[in-house]
Amino acid sequence: MSLLGKLLYLGLITSCMCQKHDDQVMFLAGPMTEEQVQGSVLDAFDCSHPIPPGSKQQFEYLQNRGVTHFKVPLSWVQLLPTGFPGHPQQSVVTCYQTLMKQLLEVGLQPLVVLHGSTVPDSLRSRYGGWENPELGDMFQQYAEFVFGEFGDMSES
Protein backbone atom coordinates (compact mmCIF):
# COMPACT_ATOMS: atom_id res chain seq x y z
CA MET A 1 0.00 0.00 0.00
CA SER A 2 1.36 3.46 -0.90
CA LEU A 3 2.14 6.08 1.71
CA LEU A 4 -0.84 8.13 0.54
CA GLY A 5 -3.06 5.06 0.87
CA LYS A 6 -1.81 4.38 4.39
CA LEU A 7 -2.36 8.00 5.38
CA LEU A 8 -5.85 7.94 3.92
CA TYR A 9 -6.60 4.75 5.83
CA LEU A 10 -5.30 6.23 9.07
CA GLY A 11 -7.14 9.47 8.44
CA LEU A 12 -10.41 7.68 7.84
CA ILE A 13 -10.10 5.34 10.77
CA THR A 14 -8.27 7.22 13.50
CA SER A 15 -9.17 10.87 12.98
CA CYS A 16 -12.84 10.29 12.23
CA MET A 17 -15.52 10.63 14.81
CA CYS A 18 -18.20 7.96 14.49
CA GLN A 19 -21.67 8.66 15.82
CA LYS A 20 -24.48 6.15 15.68
CA HIS A 21 -27.81 7.98 15.56
CA ASP A 22 -30.11 5.03 15.08
CA ASP A 23 -29.92 1.43 13.96
CA GLN A 24 -29.58 2.23 10.26
CA VAL A 25 -27.42 5.34 9.94
CA MET A 26 -23.85 5.97 10.94
CA PHE A 27 -22.14 9.28 10.25
CA LEU A 28 -18.41 9.82 9.91
CA ALA A 29 -17.24 13.34 10.62
CA GLY A 30 -13.71 14.38 9.79
CA PRO A 31 -12.05 17.72 10.54
CA MET A 32 -14.56 20.32 11.65
CA THR A 33 -12.60 23.61 11.64
CA GLU A 34 -10.39 25.32 9.08
CA GLU A 35 -7.33 24.73 11.27
CA GLN A 36 -8.09 21.01 11.39
CA VAL A 37 -8.62 20.82 7.63
CA GLN A 38 -5.34 22.43 6.56
CA GLY A 39 -2.77 19.80 5.77
CA SER A 40 -5.26 17.01 6.37
CA VAL A 41 -4.72 13.73 4.53
CA LEU A 42 -8.42 13.84 3.74
CA ASP A 43 -7.68 16.75 1.38
CA ALA A 44 -5.58 14.41 -0.78
CA PHE A 45 -8.57 12.16 -1.46
CA ASP A 46 -10.29 14.03 -4.20
CA CYS A 47 -10.23 13.76 -7.94
CA SER A 48 -7.38 16.20 -8.44
CA HIS A 49 -5.24 13.11 -7.75
CA PRO A 50 -5.79 9.50 -8.84
CA ILE A 51 -7.79 7.33 -6.47
CA PRO A 52 -5.19 5.66 -4.24
CA PRO A 53 -4.58 1.94 -4.82
CA GLY A 54 -6.20 -0.15 -2.12
CA SER A 55 -9.10 2.26 -1.62
CA LYS A 56 -11.64 -0.46 -2.29
CA GLN A 57 -10.20 -2.55 0.56
CA GLN A 58 -10.45 0.48 2.84
CA PHE A 59 -14.08 0.98 1.83
CA GLU A 60 -14.73 -2.72 2.55
CA TYR A 61 -13.19 -2.24 6.00
CA LEU A 62 -15.57 0.64 6.72
CA GLN A 63 -18.56 -1.31 5.43
CA ASN A 64 -17.61 -4.31 7.57
CA ARG A 65 -17.58 -2.01 10.61
CA GLY A 66 -21.18 -0.97 9.99
CA VAL A 67 -20.66 2.25 8.03
CA THR A 68 -23.49 2.66 5.53
CA HIS A 69 -22.76 5.96 3.76
CA PHE A 70 -19.61 7.71 2.54
CA LYS A 71 -19.54 11.49 2.03
CA VAL A 72 -18.35 12.48 -1.45
CA PRO A 73 -17.91 16.27 -1.69
CA LEU A 74 -17.84 17.18 -5.37
CA SER A 75 -15.70 20.10 -6.47
CA TRP A 76 -17.42 22.54 -8.82
CA VAL A 77 -14.00 23.95 -9.75
CA GLN A 78 -12.60 20.52 -10.64
CA LEU A 79 -15.66 19.21 -12.48
CA LEU A 80 -16.42 22.39 -14.43
CA PRO A 81 -13.28 24.57 -14.44
CA THR A 82 -15.00 27.21 -16.61
CA GLY A 83 -18.17 26.95 -14.53
CA PHE A 84 -20.24 25.90 -17.53
CA PRO A 85 -21.71 22.40 -17.92
CA GLY A 86 -20.76 22.25 -21.60
CA HIS A 87 -17.06 22.05 -20.73
CA PRO A 88 -16.56 19.39 -18.03
CA GLN A 89 -13.14 18.06 -17.06
CA GLN A 90 -13.82 14.51 -18.25
CA SER A 91 -10.97 12.94 -16.26
CA VAL A 92 -12.51 14.33 -13.05
CA VAL A 93 -16.00 13.11 -14.02
CA THR A 94 -14.54 9.64 -14.64
CA CYS A 95 -12.65 9.73 -11.34
CA TYR A 96 -15.78 10.54 -9.32
CA GLN A 97 -17.73 7.86 -11.22
CA THR A 98 -15.03 5.30 -10.41
CA LEU A 99 -15.03 6.34 -6.75
CA MET A 100 -18.81 6.02 -6.46
CA LYS A 101 -18.82 2.66 -8.26
CA GLN A 102 -16.21 1.35 -5.82
CA LEU A 103 -18.33 2.53 -2.91
CA LEU A 104 -21.46 0.88 -4.30
CA GLU A 105 -19.61 -2.37 -5.05
CA VAL A 106 -18.75 -2.80 -1.36
CA GLY A 107 -22.18 -1.72 -0.12
CA LEU A 108 -21.47 1.90 0.84
CA GLN A 109 -23.96 4.50 -0.36
CA PRO A 110 -22.30 7.67 -1.73
CA LEU A 111 -23.60 10.77 0.04
CA VAL A 112 -22.97 13.44 -2.58
CA VAL A 113 -22.33 17.01 -1.43
CA LEU A 114 -22.36 19.87 -3.93
CA HIS A 115 -19.38 21.92 -2.84
CA GLY A 116 -20.73 25.47 -3.21
CA SER A 117 -17.81 27.05 -1.40
CA THR A 118 -15.53 26.49 -4.40
CA VAL A 119 -16.73 28.75 -7.21
CA PRO A 120 -14.83 28.69 -10.52
CA ASP A 121 -12.73 31.84 -10.93
CA SER A 122 -14.37 32.75 -14.24
CA LEU A 123 -17.79 32.85 -12.55
CA ARG A 124 -16.51 34.66 -9.47
CA SER A 125 -14.98 37.41 -11.61
CA ARG A 126 -18.09 37.63 -13.81
CA TYR A 127 -20.80 37.50 -11.13
CA GLY A 128 -19.03 38.36 -7.88
CA GLY A 129 -20.30 36.50 -4.85
CA TRP A 130 -23.43 34.65 -3.84
CA GLU A 131 -25.37 37.89 -3.44
CA ASN A 132 -25.71 37.92 -7.25
CA PRO A 133 -28.72 35.79 -8.25
CA GLU A 134 -27.04 34.89 -11.56
CA LEU A 135 -24.40 32.93 -9.65
CA GLY A 136 -27.26 31.00 -8.05
CA ASP A 137 -28.52 30.21 -11.56
CA MET A 138 -25.06 28.94 -12.50
CA PHE A 139 -25.01 26.76 -9.36
CA GLN A 140 -28.36 25.32 -10.44
CA GLN A 141 -26.80 24.40 -13.81
CA TYR A 142 -23.90 22.77 -11.93
CA ALA A 143 -26.37 20.83 -9.75
CA GLU A 144 -28.28 19.66 -12.84
CA PHE A 145 -25.00 18.56 -14.45
CA VAL A 146 -24.06 16.60 -11.31
CA PHE A 147 -27.48 14.96 -11.16
CA GLY A 148 -27.18 13.96 -14.81
CA GLU A 149 -23.71 12.46 -14.33
CA PHE A 150 -24.02 10.90 -10.86
CA GLY A 151 -27.73 10.81 -9.97
CA ASP A 152 -28.07 7.09 -10.59
CA MET A 153 -25.19 6.38 -8.19
CA SER A 154 -26.55 8.23 -5.17
CA GLU A 155 -29.75 8.37 -3.16
CA SER A 156 -31.73 11.50 -3.86
From TrEMBL:
Domain of life the protein comes from: Eukaryota
GO biological process per UniProt: carbohydrate metabolic process; fibroblast growth factor receptor signaling pathway
Entry-linked Gene3D superfamilies: Glycosidases
Protein name: Lactase-phlorizin hydrolase
Entries under InterPro entries matching the protein: GH (IPR017853), Glyco_hydro_1 (IPR001360)
Pfam families: Glyco_hydro_1 (PF00232)
Entry keywords, A to Z: Hydrolase, Signal
Biological source species: Dissostichus eleginoides
Any one GO MF annotation of this record: fibroblast growth factor receptor binding
